[in-house]
Amino acid sequence: MTTFHVLGFPRVGAKRELKFAQERYWRKELSEQDLLALAKALREKNWKHQAEANADFVATGDFTFYDHILDLQVATGAIPARFGFDSQQLTLAQYFELARGNKDQFAIEMTKWFDTNYHYLVPEFSKNTQFKANPAHYVNQYREAVANGHKAKPIIVGPLTFLWLGKEKGEAFNRFDLLAKLVPVYQQILTALANEGAEWIQIDEPALALDLPKPWIDAFQSVYADLSKVNAKLLLATYFGSVAEHAPLLKSLPVAGLHLDLVRSPEQLATFADYDKVLSTGVIEGRNIWRANLNSVLDVLEPLKTKLGERLWIAPSCSLLHTPYDLSVETQLQEKNPDLYSWLAFTLQKVEELNLLKQALNHGRASVQAQLDASQVAADARKNSKVIHKAEVAARLANLPANADQRKSPFAERIAKQNAWLNLPLLPTTTIGSFPQTSEIRHARASFKKGELSLADYETAMKKEIEYVVRKQEELDLDVLVHGEAERNDMVEYFGELLDGFDFTKFGWVQSYGSRCVKPPVIFGDVTRPEPMTVRWSQYAQSLTKKVMKGMLTGPVTILQWSFVRNDIPRSTVCKQIGVALSDEVLDLEKAGIKVIQIDEPAIREGLPLKRADWDAYLQWAGEAFRLSSMGVADDTQIHTHMCYSEFNDILPAIAALDADVITIETSRSDMELLTAFGDFKYPNDIGPGVYDIHSPRVPTEAEIEHLLRKALNVVPKERLWVNPDCGLKTRGWKETIEQLEVMMKVTKKLRAELA
């Protein structure tokens, strides 16, 4: 019989129950006991869904209060020593301090999980890191599942991926040298699970889809020789890309099974056709929401079933963490856009798709013929839909002027014209765009959406919030102001609601980090901008002040990356469609007198293909799409961009090729580490390194910001250095926001006086 399992489940609940409970706990409105009880109920619900869908194992160890890599840091004793916490006796409050910082320590650095929009907390390794096993996280969840009557499969990220995802801190060394100390700790964790009765343990090594150095690849043989001594069967899981180049190694490893992502890299299946152990086939998309054509999937699986028999397992391509919970609650979408609704599958629908595939493989297609027919009807309807394709969009892309994505003059000429009218002081200050989304803002938005607040009253409420933001910035004496984005629910969703070719869910939330969830738009058709989206809000904000007002847009790559994107045409084409649509908005802002315009692209780095051989092609079309978004602007219009929580060291030529007049980047958690690379590269344009971490409520000291700014001044000429926070302030409260910005401004003015 074919085995069906999942590689992980969404953690926050169908309606973000965990998010709201966490935030109440942080505000001391909910007890730890109640938070733990809610988490237990969510886990039990997840297991019940898997069991009811006929899964042979339920996934355990995948649930986390913040991040699964933070859980692994605790389990291996590798939490940062600077906090002074004991990983063996770590309290829940201390666990959250690792993630969010406290009055004495900044939070653990955060960056993107491979090429997804999920953020993990980066392990901090030192030459003297001492690992110590604490398997409680994994053991307790396994026990819970078994106690609920389930057959469970624990999941843990493997030692090589764990080390690879970390960073060296302190005295120079190679973290690879820690492997010999780490493996015995893994053995202890796996042994603890085996002693509980775990028959199979899934060990995730997604780093295999990267271009790992040879010593790291070579180490898999000895590492898994040691881990396989544990009295349990190991399923080595790879995902997010092809591992075909490692086929000889993977076939030789002493593991009981191997998982392949056959959605991202279907071609690699041929390389593993002679694999003689359990082969777990990731055939249902774990990162997007499109319904599978089950007949097409069975065309791949049926020959495998004949060949492998019971050694064939079926699964999603990766953890379902990246997909929303349940499509069936999207009644509004079903009524408004029934065609699109019929083309989608969320987590619960994906596990049901796997259930249908299992039944078809075990009992023949006829046993689920009606469901297969429905799947085929949906696939054919989507392929032939006339709603999706617009001839005028294709024509506009095909007939762009020569060099449409290039500015009229080089940066040196542009910046001179911009400085002439901007007349900003040395070390000009600004923020990244958003200000706190207060309960009043959220209540007004919710009331408006429910029809309880008229459009006029809603806009009056938003204008009141915008005026408040402008006045506060004036009081702080910031140089380039923003309107605060009170009217925006999300930096991508807002634009998706105003662009054609997009649609939306009501409960399609996915976790970005911790308690932060996003509800990505669905790009299902060709993209156009019917009318201006931000102009009147920016005009209104500018009318309130004599200071410069910055227009705020989200860039095409980020809109692409943070949406569920159609998979029937190349992503590059979708991205250029968005860029061209945004260019209409940029030119309208310019005509309205808003001549400093920020086009945020925090997702440029995360969009990189995992294999370096594919980088150039991606960076070429992504850079072109970004430049297209400001095509045609005058030299004296200043284009900003913002990027955060990603590494850029290895793509700096491509970042420079974006040719933004000013780039702002996240650097505070890494102690300006990233800025050093910009300095070594001699980044040619203006730059604003973030001087404090906005993802923590902690107010930085003057000494901390001064330390960072002085480091920046050692790298960036003072005439080209801007001062700003790491990212937008949407998630912060007003009290800490004002206090944080006051410190930033005080230090900036001190250094201005010194440099004058």
Automatic annotation (TrEMBL):
It is an enzyme of class 2 (transferase). It holds the Pfam family Meth_synt_1. Keywords: Amino-acid biosynthesis, Metal-binding, Methionine biosynthesis, Methyltransferase, Repeat, Transferase, Zinc. 5-methyltetrahydropteroyltri-L-glutamate binds at residues 16-19, 112, 117, 516-517, 562, 606. Binds 2 Zn(2+) ions per subunit. Binds 1 zinc ion per subunit. GO terms for biological process: methionine biosynthetic process; methylation. InterPro entries: Cbl-indep_Met_Synth_N, Cobalamin-indep_Met_synthase, Met_Synth_C/arc, UROD/MetE-like_sf. It catalyses: 5-methyltetrahydropteroyltri-L-glutamate + L-homocysteine = tetrahydropteroyltri-L-glutamate + L-methionine. Transmembrane segments: none annotated. It comes from the Bacteria. Residues 5-307 form the Cobalamin-independent methionine synthase MetE N-terminal domain. The active site is at 695 (proton donor). Zn(2+) binds at residues 642, 644, 666, 727. Residues 427-749 form the Cobalamin-independent methionine synthase MetE C-terminal/archaeal domain. Its cofactor is Zn(2+). L-homocysteine binds at residues 432-434, 485, 600. One of its GO terms (molecular function) is zinc ion binding. L-methionine binds at residues 432-434, 485, 600. Zn(2+) 1 binds at residues 642, 644, 666, 727. Belongs to the vitamin-B12 independent methionine synthase family. Catalyzes the transfer of a methyl group from 5-methyltetrahydrofolate to homocysteine resulting in methionine formation. This is 5-methyltetrahydropteroyltriglutamate--homocysteine methyltransferase. It comes from Lonepinella koalarum. The gene is metE.
